[in-house]
Design goal:
The complex is a heterodimer of chains A (177) and B (98).
Chain A: E1 22-24, H1 26-32, E2 44-49, E3 53-59, H2 79-101, H3 108-112, E4 118-126, E5 135-146, E6 149-158, E7 161-171
Chain B: H1 6-31, H2 55-69, H3 84-97
The chains are: A alpha+beta (177), B mainly alpha (98).
């Protein structure tokens, strides 16, 4: 597992520049999350403070399967898929904490089994269309916790333009809310 | 030991009543419940056959209490969700401690 800090455009395997922050490549993320194509919705994570906050990138290609139907003559990324990208960044921040706490050499694949479910979406505002060619910058900050539930503030932007922001509740285990 | 006067006791009771009513209004607004604060009793259970809250609602209340009173409710403080009275008791106890 790579645990080095990298700028948004850089490699996840650079040396740490800021103490406590981690970066994860797509290969790292595939070891951290159980999601796979066509539902793996995050390409890279950086500035991750395990269990606290993080940033991520999702590059939106015209080949995304949802563009086949949304819409055939006017490609727009569905808002729920933007939320899914945000939620997967949250899962990376979550799993990063588990990996940090684990013994050196522990299998990250086991940690991926602790990825839970989306519990609620609230006050989510969508302020810009996302189309093929856009690169989503995702941000997540974990908040209050109670039992297996965790409140998270999330935001997505393209360049300097905000795309969506709101709050999620996620579970930390594979038990329904 | 000082003994509270009738006026002091009445002021305390009034203050408590206002806190309970404020908290009921906040919970109803936050959770979008279709009830009036006046029909929620101070000792009515918040879960099950009371206000029928679920675990997601409970976390909303944790966020709300932290934001409004700067008091954090943890997994060990579940008795705070017993009723409106229990919740106000918990907040007052934590505020007195800090």
């Amino acid at each position: 597992m790579t645990a080095a800090t990298a700028p948004p455009g850089g490699s996840g395997r650079r040396a740490a520049a800021t103490a406590g922050k981690r970066s994860y490549s797509c290969d790292d993320i595939k070891r951290m999350l159980p999601h796979r194509w066509p539902m793996l919705m995050i390409d890279r994570a950086y500035d991750v403070v395990p269990g606290v906050s993080g940033r991520g990138v999702k590059s939106v290609s015209v080949n995304e399967p949802f563009f086949a139907g949304h819409y055939p003559d006017h490609a727009v990324m569905p808002g729920v898929m933007i939320v899914e990208s945000m939620a997967q960044l949250v899962a990376v921040v979550y799993v990063a904490e588990i990996i940090e706490a684990a013994q050196p050499g522990a299998d990250a694949g086991d940690a991926s089994k602790s990825v839970g479910y989306l519990g609620s979406i609230s006050q989510m505002r969508f302020s810009r269309l996302v189309v093929p060619g856009d690169q989503l910058t995702l941000e997540a900050t974990l908040g209050e916790r109670l039992g297996e539930l965790r409140r998270v503030s999330v935001r997505a932007s393209v360049g300097r333009e905000q795309v969506a922001s709101g709050s999620l509740v996620v579970t930390s285990g594979r038990r329904a809310v | 030991m000082s003994v509270a006067t009738f006026e002091q006791i009445r002021a305390q009771a009034q203050s408590r009543l206002e806190k309970n009513t404020h908290l009921k209004s906040m919970i109803i607004d936050r959770l979008g419940l279709d009830v009036e604060p006046s029909v929620v009793s101070d000792n009515q259970p918040l879960f099950g056959r009371g206000l029928e809250m679920d675990s997601l609602d409970t976390l909303e209340i944790v966020v709300m209490i932290n934001s409004e009173y700067a008091v954090l409710i943890s997994d060990d403080d579940f008795e705070a969700f017993g009723s409106i009275n229990a919740l106000v008791d918990f907040v007052e106890a934590r505020e007195a401690r800090s």
